[in-house]
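INFO batch 0412 | record 1 of 1 | parsing
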Amino acid sequence: MDKKHFHLIGVCGTAMGSLAGMLKTQGHRVTGSDKAFYPPMGDELKRLGIETYEGFSEDHLKPAPDVVVVGNATSRGNAELEYVLNHKLRYASMPEVICENFIRGRHSTVVAGTHGKTTTTSILAWVMEVGGLDPSFLIGGVAENFGASFKVTSSKYFAIEGDEYDTAYFDKGPKFLHYLPDLVILNNIEYDHADIYPDLDAVKKSFRLLVNLIPSDGRLIAGWDSPVVREIVENPISPQGVWCGIETFGIDHSDAKWTAGDIVFKPEETRFKVSCEGREYAQIRTPLAGMFNVRNCLAVIAASEVLGIERKAVSEALATFKSVKRRMQVRGIVNQVTVIDDFAHHPTAIRETLLAVKQKYPDRRIVAIFEPRSWTTRKKIFQHEYPLSFAPAEYVVIAPIFESFRLAADDQLSVDEVISDLAKQGKQAWSIEGADAIVEHLAPKLLPGDVVVVMSNGGFGGIHQKLLEALGGHESESGITKHPK
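INFO prediction complete | emitting tokens
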């Protein structure tokens, strides 16, 4: 393989940063730029030794790289992109580079759906690893079993998180259409990404296109608890139907091929029985909490059978799976107050995360802190869903809408209305601006045994560490904060 110089514009995105590491693993020279570098990907780029530039400048492209990878957050007006176009430099989208450098010629498993993609892909990669397949993978987060968001091997297996978000400013189709899927896990579908999809029908169309890419000897693992997934399977884009074989899984519907039952949630683990076509397949234990993670595990179990992985290896992998950074990640414990970081940025994800926390920490007060940061959470489309989403929490703090100036006033979520609705439910609910002000308000009110769940898809002003420090501790390397001596 010829060694090249790749330069990534927008390198601190989770997938872009992972691609940078993958390209470097192949022996290429890799540089990247972004407007800021925040954890976890900022730390990961440093660990990987990627040469990075804060801010954008045409000087970063002199001498010219062999390929400039344009991230989907990069738009016209970016100094580096304008230089690329003006000087006819070779450029490509992130999914194009992934496809041609890592997927083509391999067996590709794509994990798709509105919720749970990162966790499910991480579970799948670990099951494949324990099962001896030695997979390459790319995940939109840091998988703790691997201590990385990617792995590059010489095996024929590749697993990737399939994002329905658009590819680049010059390619508005979803990323997952580039990933040559042989096996697709389609867990659930809801309306999301309100900045690029006008309605749920547009979202459905993208997923129908993905299903229509699966070859006839491939397989679709379909989440049967999701009405929209059912609709797509039963009314596909092709008039001939879905061309590949289908494995259905679910908890709420007994007509699924793969089902989970006898589910027991314990503080230390979740246990459940898996059945295939009504016959017991395995007894499963996992440290993961929440019903949504039972579904994630069930999807991977069905996929593992397709991949030919032994049941014993599947059970062992699920029992030893650690999780993903920023997915119900315990950032610290100070004076018996537990601080958790989660990426939830959709009303359903907020509800399921808080339900899982409640199951893991029964009889403890749940304090939810939320930053409406993604386009979907900033818009008023889910205005009435939020009071239900926060139901498992007793105390709620919501930050103002992130960069509210980017949305018309009549199109914005009304945080004040959400707070009012929560107060009518008898909850203590506050709208407070900025990480520092939230910490100042909250720290004196926290009691031993409280569990604080911080939910944002951004850095949120470093609120996690600020809160831990305000509570009187310091974060250890393990992420568990000790009592100061």
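INFO post-check: The longest helix spans residues 291-307.
INFO record closed
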